[in-house]
Amino acid sequence: MKMEWMAWTTPTAIFFIVIACTLTVFTVLAIKFPEAPRMGILRTETTRGDRLFITLLGSAFINLAWLGVVGANQPYALMVCLAYAVAVFRWV
Amino acid sequence: MEKTVNQKAWFLILPVLLLVAFSAVIPLMTVVNYSVQDTFGNNQFFWAGLEWFEEMLRSERMWDALGRQLMFSAIILAIQVPLGVFIALNMPKSGFWSSFCLVMMSLPLLIPWNVVGTIWQIFGRVDIGLLGYTLDALGIPYNYTQNTFAAWVTIIVMDVWHWTSLVALLAFAGLKSIPDAYYQAAKIDQASRWAIFRYIELPKMMGVLMIAILLRFMDSFMIYTEPFVVTGGGPGNATTLLSIDLVKMALGQFDLGPAAAFSIMYYLVILLISYVFYTVMTNLDKKGG
């Protein structure tokens, strides 16, 4: 299949594959192990899916902030994102 | 009793999911692909990495457009929401005049964006427009093509004219759903008009009002056609809102890479604010019953 029309690159393809895999894993988890929403520090009920969304959205902003303030050195930003993800899944 | 959760119902939304995949997900992925590359046309792309994102984050042009956009959304929300609620509170609650008001107020909502823009573009002209001519005759300096303040007033009044009805209609629907018993109880307690509004009407309207605010915020944050038709983003860049700037960059200058980086950031801001509104709305729903 020709993919030129979408102007694919290897990094962006990996990026979307990782997101698609994450979504699949979380869907399977939600079906296999249904869970009750819980109240976190944001004072709102969240499920695993909500926490994933907050993590992904927050990570996008962390990466942008890193790019704007520190400069293009994304592996470090990803480490911050990882810490953020752990915090979100633990406390939100 | 706990409700049974049947996850199989999700399969029913599969057709919509496919449609959205073609209309939204694939274009979005293409934009992400564009944002890390440079092109001079001819479908040839060169890897640029995060260069465009860095450039956009340091671009005064983008921050200025974002500032103008936030100011525009804040102003129209600050006017439309209280005005819409005020209109809804003062509308006849039943009978012929109630239906008449509803129909009249729906009219601006039915007019396409570009037509609204054209109406106001002509209406505000000093030579042939009723508004522009009258203001000019009264000695009030008004020229939306040259004066920044006049241009801003025009696009704000235009948006208020076009969309306040939506807030009013939603608020009216919220008011109509309040059972009479609440008002009777308030009467027995000899509650003041303000107390009735503050403790009965406003809390009961909150759900629909949040929907109205969310809709108006998203719509105003993405507004393109109306200001583009009226002012074209001018005078200078005074009314160049985010989407106008984005189109200039993407189609006017054919800077697909920077424009793609710009639109991803634009999208993220909308996503964040919409998610916050959505969360607040669902929390309100849960509190309400």
Automatic annotation (TrEMBL), chain A:
Keywords: Membrane, Transmembrane, Transmembrane helix. InterPro entries: DUF2160_TM (IPR018678). This is Putative small integral membrane protein. The chain crosses the membrane at residues 12-31, 52-69. Pfam families: DUF2160.
From TrEMBL, chain B:
It comes from the Bacteria. It is a multi-pass membrane protein. GO terms for biological process: transmembrane transport. It is found in: Cell membrane. Keywords: Membrane, Transmembrane, Transmembrane helix, Transport. Residues 66-277 form the ABC transmembrane type-1 domain. The keyword Transmembrane applies. GO terms for cellular component: plasma membrane. Its main location: membrane. The chain crosses the membrane at residues 12-36, 70-89, 101-123, 149-175, 196-218, 259-278. Belongs to the binding-protein-dependent transport system permease family. This is sn-glycerol-3-phosphate transport system permease protein UgpA.
